[in-house]
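fwd from M.: "can u put these together and see what the complex looks like"

so here's what she sent:
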Amino acid sequence: MSMFNAKFYDFMVHLPDEMDSINSLVLAAKEFGYSGMAALNLRKNRNGMNQLPEDFSIYSAIEVSGKPSDIRDEIRKYKDTGDILIARGRNEEVARAAVETERLDIILQPVKFNNVLGKIASDNSIALGFNIGSIIHTRGEERVQELRIMRTNLMYARKYDLQMVLTCEPYSMYDFRSPREMAALGGLFGMSPKEAVDAMSTVPIDIMRKKSTGYIQEGVEII
Amino acid sequence: MKTLPVLREKKRYIAFKVISENTINRRELTEELLDSMYSLFGDKGASEINPSLMSYDGGFGILRCQKDRTSDTRAALACISRVRGGCVSIRVLGISGTVKGAMEKFIQQSIIKDSEPEKD
């Protein structure tokens, strides 16, 4: 059985404002082979979402941003809401503040990741996000930089046994890429197909399990 | 003169579907595909992949590449996001060892699937 028969999820989808565009985005995601997604502005668009296919799950995600102190406050504010918390590692200070705060789920494409951040992220069970969209939408020097960052991040993820998440950060139906294409693009910075499949199926499912109401902490359950 | 059969390189045929805002013609798609390939893998890589657009009808197409470079070709196809200012997405339907296989197994099946009415 091919490893691409799993259920795939994209955890960084930006929903458009119009309902028609949301429907076409969901249908496109389904056609591209995804079983679900986490949408960033779902709270705003939740009305009228009952027309969506039944076999497609949509979760809510929140992108925490701002100054390092704001990031800590926002993570603490949303940690019990059940939303997937994602922080973009724009610089080292922001990435440090984000990984140091417990209950963050994903640190997306940190620019200057290092062994200290890797160790803290590993202790706090934070997944490392790879934004494939940055490879698709950039060219030349900018793409070279992105690939270099991703190659370094992959090295630290392997070293500290961090979970990895792949996303193409879609804004519209044209931004989706199928899981096989995502794995092929992951191969450009050294990610193996197995790691890519896990980053789109096993890890997102595990994050959702941790976000479920019955979850207390790893190794603890109510009998 | 033809290449000796034992020296002939094995090919793969990638069936794909173009999803785009505007209609894209064959020349535009070829240019964008080669541009994407040169940008990602350079002249050396593109020569090793040896891509060739076998057929394209405005919606579906078949692209030929070297057998061991299908993953790179997929990556190059996935990197096409804009043509003439309009958004584009290319979905690979499948890979076959023959043009006939790619056409029958993937493109015709996809056309039949698209034309079927949705079940309530």
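replying to her w this: Residues 62-210 of chain A form a domain with the TIM Barrel fold (CATH 3.20.20.140).
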